[in-house]
Amino acid sequence: MRDSLILRAATVGLLLPLGGCISLKTPEKPIEINLNVVIRQEVVVRLQRDVEQLIKANPDAFPGTTPSPAPKQR
Known about the structure:
Layout: H1 2-15, H2 36-57
């Protein structure tokens, strides 16, 4: 029992000076994850497909144009 009390006191005595060394500070600016590249590629492919479908559905509105083949997705 006495050894346990001495061990606890020694542990507390060693840890007390270290208590002021640890500090946590939140960042002033939020963390930002930028995924614009993937989103832009998807939007461009979808718009291209929509335009091709529009040209095919209304060939008189777009004379002299032939839709290009759709790009292959990875």
